[in-house]
Design brief:
With about 300 residues, the chain is of the alpha/beta class. It contains twelve helices and eight strands.
Length: about 300
C-alpha cells in the first residue's frame, strides 16, 4: 500500500490526426512524467478515454507503458467495465503485465444496487492480488457509492486498499479517511478540493491537472507532507484556475491534450464524438497556462 501515495497524473491517450493512438507519443510522455518526479501514473482512466478504446488498445497500452516505465514508478491501470467478467479480465491482464494497482469505477449503465456493487467488487478482488482503488464518481457513473459500502469493501477485501473520491463531498472523504484507517486510504478525485482533501486525511491525488503541471502537483503534495503548509497553499492557489477550468468545462480530455501540445508533449485530437476546443477555449487555456507555467512559447 505504501507505494500508492502522492499525486498520480491520470494520463491522456495521445492520438494522431486519424484518431489512432500515437504509441511513440505514449512512450515519450511517460518518460517526461518520470523526469518530472511524479509519484506514479495512471493509464486507461477517464482522462485516457478508456470508454473510447478497444480491448486490444487497452491491453497494448498496459503492455507498452509498463515496459517503458520498467519499474521506475508505480503504474496504476483503469480496468473498469460494465460487466464483472470483463472487469476481471482487464484486471488480470494488468496484473500479468506488471501493473502496481487497478483503478475501478462501478458499472455505470446498468445502475447497480448497493449489494450488486458489493458483489461486483468482491468478485473482482477474489481474482487478483493487485491492490484495488475504488472509484466513486457519481457525475460520470450515475451512482454515488455510500461511505459504509466502501468501508465494508475495504474491511472485507484485503486487496481493496484505496478509494478515489470524486463526488465533491468533502465530508465523505473525511469519513472514509478517518473511519477506514488501517483498511482503506483516500485519494482526492476532485480537482478543486485537493488541499481540503489532504487536510481531512487523503494520502494522494488522482490528478488531471498533473498532466499539465506534473512538478507542481508533486511539489504540492510533498510540501504538505513536510508540514510546509503555506508553500502547499501557494501552489494550490496558483493552479486552482486550471483545476476549475478542467472541472467546469466538460472538455477536460480536450483541454489536457491541447495543453500537452503547448507543453511540447504528445496530445492530438480525441475520439469522436469529442470535438476540439473552440478558439475562445484555446485562448482561455493559454491565459491560464501563462500564469501557472514558465513556458515562453505559449
Amino acid at each position: 500500500m505504501s507505494k500508492i501515495r502522492g499525486a498520480f497524473p491520470v494520463l491522456i491517450t495521445p492520438m494522431n490526426e486519424n484518431q489512432e493512438i500515437d504509441w511513440e507519443g505514449v512512450k515519450n510522455n511517460v518518460n517526461y512524467f518520470i523526469e518530472q518526479g511524479v509519484a506514479g501514473i495512471i493509464i486507461n482512466g477517464s482522462t485516457g478515454e478508456f470508454v473510447s478504446l478497444t480491448k486490444d488498445e487497452k491491453f497494448r497500452m498496459v503492455e507498452t507503458v509498463v515496459k517503458e516505465v520498467n519499474g521506475r514508478i508505480p503504474v496504476m491501470v483503469g480496468t473498469a467495465s460494465e460487466t464483472t467478467k470483463e472487469t476481471i479480465e482487464y484486471t488480470k491482464q494488468a496484473e500479468a503485465n506488471g501493473a502496481e494497482a487497478a483503478l475501478i469505477i462501478n458499472p455505470y449503465y446498468c445502475k447497480p444496487k448497493e449489494e450488486e456493487i458489493y458483489f461486483h467488487f468482491k468478485e473482482v478482488a477474489k481474482e487478483t492480488n493487485l491492490p484495488i482503488m475504488l472509484y466513486n464518481n457519481p457525475g460520470l457513473s450515475g451512482i454515488d457509492m455510500g461511505t459504509e459500502l466502501m468501508l465494508r469493501l475495504g474491511r472485507d477485501c484485503e486487496n481493496i486498499t484505496h478509494v478515489k473520491e470524486s463526488s465533491g463531498d468533502i465530508q465523505k472523504a473525511r469519513d472514509l479517511a478517518r473511519e477506514g484507517k488501517g483498511d482503506i486510504e483516500v485519494f482526492c478525485g476532485a480537482e478543486e478540493l485537493v488541499m481540503e482533501s489532504y487536510f481531512v486525511g487523503a494520502t494522494g491525488w488522482v490528478s488531471v491537472a498533473g498532466n499539465i503541471v506534473p512538478k507542481l502537483v508533486t511539489d504540492m503534495f510533498n510540501h504538505f507532507q513536510k508540514g510546509e503548509i503555506d508553500k502547499a497553499w501557494d501552489i494550490n492557489d496558483r493552479i486552482l484556475p486550471l483545476c476549475k477550468f478542467l472541472e467546469g468545462s466538460g472538455k477536460y480530455v480536450q483541454i489536457v491534450k491541447r495543453a500537452m501540445e503547448l507543453n511540447g508533449q504528445a496530445g492530438g485530437p480525441s475520439r469522436y464524438p469529442r470535438l476540439g476546443l473552440t478558439p475562445e477555449e484555446k485562448e482561455k487555456l493559454k491565459a491560464i497556462m501563462a500564469n501557472v507555467t514558465e513556458i515562453s512559447h505559449i
